[in-house]
Amino acid sequence: MKAGIWEGGGTISCGEVEQPQPGAGELLVEIAYCGVCGTDLHILDGKFDVGPPPQVLGHEASGVVVAGGPETDPELIGRAVGLNPIGPCGVCVWCRAGHPTHCRNPYYSASAYAEYALYRPQQLFPLPAGVSLPGAALLEPWATALRAAEAARLRAGENVLVIGGGSLGLLVASAARVLGAATVTVSEPRRRNRELALARGATAAVDSAEADLAALAAATGELRGFDVVFEVAGATAALEQAPALLRRGGRLVVLGVFGAEVTVPVAPTQLTDRELTILGSFGGGGSFGRAASLLSAVDAASLVTAVEPLAGIAELFGRIRAGEEIKGMIQPGRGESVGAQQA
Fold first, then answer.
1. CA distances from residue 30 to 143, 196, 333 in whole angstroms, order as listed
2. Rounded alpha-carbon distances, angstroms, from residue 18 to 35, 60, 112, 117, 299
3. Which of 82, 117, 147, 316 could disulfide-link to 139, CB 3.0 to 4.6 Å?
4. What DSSP assignment string belongs to 66-93?
5. What whole-number distance in Å separates Cα of residue 146 and Cα of residue 341?
6. Which CATH superfamily is domain 2-138+304-342 in?
7. pLDDT at 191 over 50
């Protein structure tokens, strides 16, 4: 079958690999769409370790279940689904503690730049009414955004700043609005992204290259600072500035991916005197079910600006890296049959 293969270094290309066959408890999914995540670019750049190449990448996917191995439910065959790339075991100490993201024995499915990939039943989420297969391919980043907003204990009426208006930052802004934020400001250098942020419900979108975020924070509400700041850009300067943009008792959530060599100094008195909270958030964890039920409300598919076949994967990665696309997707070469099965 055709697949997008990371060959090492910064190279990804379309090639041929053996089609996987489902074993016990496994389901074969015909991939309809797979979103290009910023993490994939970080893998190519050596900033995110997933082991040595060559590897088939891709974890933001949707598709149709076409076969099942022993010990699987035959009623799942033919079902159109959004997919969680991480299948937690459900029995380890982290799963029992309610932290499936840190599962000790996860089943990984991160090879969806391909015509077919294997998943377990707990990784499948049926498409809600009104959600297309392209929209369902954004379930994973949407769950990641929603989990971050929930981790921030975001409350109705609060004021939010999102630093970084890429596709994940835009979904974080949507999550903040869904949870009742009074204002959501997106800081992003690309005009096209700022316009989309406003079209999707952000109350303000500012050019990060020109805006005085400190002045914006000081003028935000009676508490003179943002209640919650999300750092989604992976920019060291932004992360260094972020604590100063919070009101007393505010919360900073870090989602951006940084190289291992990056460290950001934080004065302990800044945390204690102002009682700030700094936390990290990674992946969708246990938020996939809630995220799936809210997919139609956030119109995730409106983020997609380019869809290419597997043969165009290298060129699409180049355009995304150059900032020419907000959200790119790969559609493996059997999209027509997938669409027929969805209908």
1. 22, 31, 10
2. 22, 21, 13, 11, 35
3. 82
4. EEE-TTS-GGGTT-EEEE-SEE--SSSH
5. 29
6. Medium-chain alcohol dehydrogenases, catalytic domain (3.90.180.10)
7. yes
Confidence of residue 333 (pLDDT cuts 50, 70, 90): low
Tokens representing residue 338 in the block = 């997938």
Confirm if 33 and 330 have CB atoms less than 8 A apart.
Answer: yes
pLDDT digits (tens, 9 = 90+) for 265-274: 888 888 899 9
Strand partners, 200: none
Task: Indicate if the alpha-carbon torsion angle 288, 167, 261, 265 is positive or negative.
Answer: negative
Bridge partner list, 216: none
Closest residue by Cα to residue 251 from 231, 269, 222: 231
What is residue 114's DSSP assignment? B
Question: How many other CB atoms sit within 10 Å of the CB of residue 51?
Answer: 6
- Assigned token pair, 222: 């009676």
Enter the pTM of the model: 0.93
**Domain-wise residue ranges, the chain:** 2-138+304-342, 145-280
Which helix (H) or strand (E) segment holds residue 177: the answer is helix 167-178
Is there a contact between 335 and 311 (Cβ–Cβ < 8 Å)?
Answer: no
Residue 195's alpha-carbon distances to 62, 165, 200, in angstroms, are 27, 10, 9
| Count of C-beta atoms within a 10 Å radius of residue 23 | 11
The whole-angstrom distance between residue 147's C-alpha and the CA centroid of its chain comes to 10
Write out the E strands in 174-319. 183-187, 204-206, 226-231, 246-254, 277-280, 306-308
Domain 145-280 coded CATH 3.40.718.10: no
Pairing of strands 86-87, 107-108: antiparallel
Cβ burial, residue 341 (10 Å; 0-12/13-18/19+) = middle
Rounded to 5°, the CA angle 81-82-85 comes to 125
Alpha-carbon distance values, 279 to 231, 276, 342 (Å): 11, 10, 40
